[in-house]
Amino acid sequence: MVVATEEMVVYCFDTLVAYFTGERPPPPAFEDGNHPLFVTWKKAANGSEPRLRGCIGTLESRQIVSGFRDYALTSALRDRRFPPIQSKELPTLECTVSILTDYEIAEDYLDWEVGKHGLIIEFTAPDSNTKHSATYLPEVAGHEGENFLFHRCDVHLSFLQSSLVSRIIAGDNKKK
C-alpha cells in the first residue's frame, strides 16, 4: 500500500510554482502507483487557523504522479467554491495530500470513527428527487467531529481511510 509522504506535498508545491513561473516542475521524488487521491490547499493569515482554499481529488484510482500533478492545479485554480489561488499567496499556503484506502459500506450513519474514517455521502433529495453526493476526508471529519446530521433523506454512507501528509512551505518550494 502506498502511503502519503512529504515528497508528494513538495511535488504539489513544485507543480503550482511551475505553473506560475511557466517552467516544468522537477521530477517527483516518490514512486508511482494507483490510488484515489485528493490535494487540499489551505491559507494561513494573521496567525489564525488555516482556511480552506481548494480541495479536489478523485475517488477513482489514478496514477499518483499524474494525479497529484493534475489535482494540485485543479484544486488550486478550479475549485468552484473559491477564486483561483494567486502566486502572491504561495508563502501562506499549506498543502495536504491524501491517498484514500480501505473503502467499506457503513451499516448506519453512526457506524464510523471520527478522525479515522472519511465519509462519502450519497442521497436523493425528497423534494426534488435529485441525487447528491459529498465527500469528507478523514481529516475533515476529525475537525468537524460528530456534527453530521442525517435526517429527512434516505442516505447511503460509505467510509474510507486515508494516508495524508500536511506541511506549510513559507515562501519557497524546497524541502525543509
Rg, alpha carbons: 17 Å
- Class of secondary structure makeup: alpha+beta
Number of strands: 6
Order of helices and strands: HEEHEEEHE
Strand order of the largest sheet: 2-1-3-6-4-5
| Shape field | globular
Proportion of helical residues: 10-25%
The H-level CATH homologous superfamily of the largest domain, spelled out, is Hypothetical protein ph0010, domain 1
Mean pLDDT: 81
| CATH topology type of the largest domain | Glycoprotein, Type 4 Pilin
How much β-strand is present in the residues?
A: 35-45%
Oligomerization category of the chains in this entry: single chain
- Largest beta-sheet characterization: 6 strands, antiparallel
Please identify, by name, the CATH architecture of the largest domain.
2-Layer Sandwich
How many structurally independent domains? 2
The top level CATH class name of the largest domain: Alpha Beta
Low-confidence stretches: 147-157, 168-176
Q: With helices defined by DSSP (H or I, 4 residues minimum), what is the helix count? A: 3
What is the distance, rounded to the nearest whole angstrom, between the alpha carbons of the first and last residues? Answer: 25 Å
Organism: Zea mays
Domain AMMECR1: 1-176
InterPro entries: AMMECR1 (IPR023473), AMMECR1_dom_sf (IPR036071), AMMECR1_domain (IPR002733), AMMECR1_N (IPR027485)
Protein name: AMMECR1 family
